[in-house]
Write a structure and sequence with these properties.
Blueprint lengths: L3 E5 L10 H9 L2 H12 L5 H10 L7 H9 L6 H10 L2 E10 H11 L3 E10 L2 E7 L5 H14 L7 E5 L5 H6 L2 E5 L3 H6 L2 E3 L16
Parallel strand pairs: 1-2, 1-5, 2-3, 5-6, 6-7
Antiparallel strand pairs: 3-4
Helix pairs in contact: 1-2, 1-4, 2-3, 4-6
């Protein structure tokens, strides 16, 4: 029987990096993209708008940049131990990301993540179009995804933990029984029930439910 679910942001939470910035390295637009990312995570600009602006700078890059970027991604300290602790306690871990499915589809199984959702980069003739397809995974969609996963698992909100670092994680935090700000922006730290400022995911383990 599943006892709880931990739903976590990905970039700068489960991983140390912002994937869009790693991709932007190849386009020579990292400084511009990083500035937009910082404003979006602080809640100063709309996330969907910021994503479109950042992805537009990737237009024309070869599709191979994705696999090159995947090799550069660094899991956050303690990720393996956190995932193991969740599973030992009969929990599940979901990753919901404003990043990209082409990256998360590879990394999530490697990291032992049970469920995941992210945006999809538009690709044609082996090159990035500088656009995303489908519904953008913003704050509203993150919250919807958390609700859907918890319903699928038959879990009430009291058995749901939400963890993130940016403004687009606030709505899903409101849906959870426990909200954790992980090395987060000030607005998120103030909003969350628990704030962890040490960059090590093992710090989250004491807040997980005990094994039934």
């Amino acid at each position: 029987m599943i006892s709880f679910v931990l739903v976590a942001d990905v970039d700068s939470t489960l991983i140390k990096d912002e994937v869009i910035e790693l991709l932007a390295d190849a386009a020579g637009t990292r400084a511009e993209v990083a500035q937009i990312t910082a404003r979006a995570m602080a809640g100063d600009i709309d996330f969907a708008e910021s994503l479109r602006e950042r992805v537009a700078t990737l237009r024309g890059l070869p599709e191979s940049v994705i696999s090159e970027t995947i090799r550069r991604v660094r899991p956050s300290n303690g990720l393996a131990e956190l995932v193991d602790a969740v599973h030992r306690r009969q929990g599940r871990i979901g990753a919901v990301s404003g990043g990209f499915s082409q990256v998360l589809d590879v990394l999530a199984p490697q990291y032992g993540i049970d469920m995941w959702r992210a945006n999809s980069l538009s690709i044609r003739d082996g090159h990035l179009l500088g656009e995303v397809t489908g519904t953008i995974v913003d704050a509203r969609v993150k919250a919807q995804t958390l609700r859907q996963w918890s319903a699928d698992l038959g879990l009430p909100s009291a058995q749901v933990i939400a963890m993130g670092d940016g403004a687009n994680d606030l709505l899903m935090m409101d849906e959870a029984g426990l909200s954790i700000a992980y090395c987060a922006k000030p607005r998120v730290r103030e909003h969350a029930q628990v704030s962890i400022d040490v960059p090590d995911l093992r710090e989250v383990i004491p807040y997980l439910p005990q094994t039934p």
